[in-house]
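Async update (no meeting this week)

Hi team, since we skipped the sync, here's where things stand on the single-chain job. The sequence we agreed to prioritize is pasted below, unchanged from the tracker. I ran it this morning and attached the output directly underneath so nobody has to dig for it. Comments welcome in thread, and please keep replies under the output.
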Amino acid sequence: DEPLPFGHLFPHPVLQGCYWSMLCYANGDVTRRKVRDAFFGGADWGGFSAAIRETPVGNGGAVGLFYTTDEITPAVACGPDYRSVQGRAVEAFEDPRQNARAVVEM
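Output:
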């Protein structure tokens, strides 16, 4: 059998007969950097971090899906960024800081 592409299953190092799993994600750091560079002036994380502090948990109902590469778990092909507010698709958030909160909460 071929291994599954989205994670790994390991024997537990202490509990005999038990296992632990590791799920693999592709769109973590690379995608956060993409959002940082697009909205917060590049290599400095200060503006990105400030945006996280200045936006509420839950992002006021604003949701963003940002895929820089194909995602592993769940399997999703790379495509255009998606944003919605209160369940309605939008082209962009009114407050650019919401992009930072959205990429962290996605």
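Quick observations from my side:
Residues 29-39 form the longest helix (11 residues).
The radius of gyration is 17 Å.
Reply here if anything looks off.
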